[in-house]
Design a protein that fits this description.
This protein is mainly alpha-helical. The protein has 7 helices and no strands. About 70% of the residues lie in helices and about 0% in strands.
C-alpha cells in the first residue's frame, strides 16, 4: 500500500526530509521520528489519508502504525486517525481538496457578508449596548443586545481564524 503518492502534498525526494515534512503537517514532534523512515512515511501518509480510505485500507494503515518501534509515535498517529473520524476539521490535513475548498468558500462568504453589513456588526452592537447601559442603566433589552453583540464578535473572530487555518493548509498543498 503506497499512500505517499496519493497525498495532496508535494514532498521532498529525500526520505528523511519527506518524513520531517509529514511530521510538520501532522504536528508530530520531531523527537518522536526515530527508526525506518520508509515505514514512518507510510504510516504518516496513511494517517493523513485515513478518512478517505475503505475499511481494508484503514486496517492496513493501523497495521503499519503498529509496526513502528516508537510507542509515543504510534499513539500520536492513532490519536490523529481517530480524532478526524470524530471531527474532520480537527485535522485540516485530513480534508479532501473539495472539502477544503467548500470550507474556505463558506468562511469567505461569511466574512464578505459580515463586511457588507458593516465591518463587524458585533463590535458596533457591543459598543452601542455598553453605552446604553452606561447612560440608562442595565435593562433586559440592552443586556440582550450586549450578549448578542459579544456573540457576533466571537463568531466573526472564529470564522476569521478558521479561514486563516484553511488558507494556510491550501497553500501548503500548493
Amino acid at each position: 500500500m503506497d499512500l505517499v503518492n496519493k497525498l495532496p502534498y508535494k514532498l521532498p525526494s529525500n526520505e528523511a526530509d519527506a518524513v520531517r515534512s509529514l511530521a510538520k503537517v501532522l504536528n508530530v514532534p520531531l523527537h518522536l521520528i526515530q527508526g525506518d523512515t520508509v515505514k514512518i512515511s507510510q504510516a504518516m501518509s496513511g494517517t493523513i489519508m485515513y478518512r478517505q480510505l475503505d475499511r481494508l485500507e484503514k486496517q492496513q494503515v493501523m497495521m503499519a502504525i503498529h509496526a513502528l518501534g516508537n510507542g509515543l509515535l504510534k499513539s500520536n498517529l492513532i490519536a490523529r486517525c481517530t480524532d478526524v473520524l470524530v471531527n474532520p476539521q480537527w485535522g485540516e490535513w485530513s480534508l479532501t481538496n473539495e472539502e477544503l475548498t467548500a470550507i474556505l468558500k463558506f468562511h469567505n462568504d461569511f466574512n464578505r457578508w459580515s463586511s457588507i453589513i458593516g465591518a463587524n456588526p458585533g463590535a458596533y452592537g457591543t459598543a452601542g449596548a455598553a453605552w446604553s447601559i452606561i447612560k440608562k442603566g442595565i435593562s433586559s433589552g440592552n443586556l440582550a443586545v450586549l450578549i448578542a453583540s459579544i456573540a457576533l464578535v466571537g463568531i466573526h473572530e472564529f470564522s476569521y481564524r478558521e479561514m486563516q487555518k484553511y488558507t494556510a493548509e491550501q497553500e501548503r498543498r500548493g
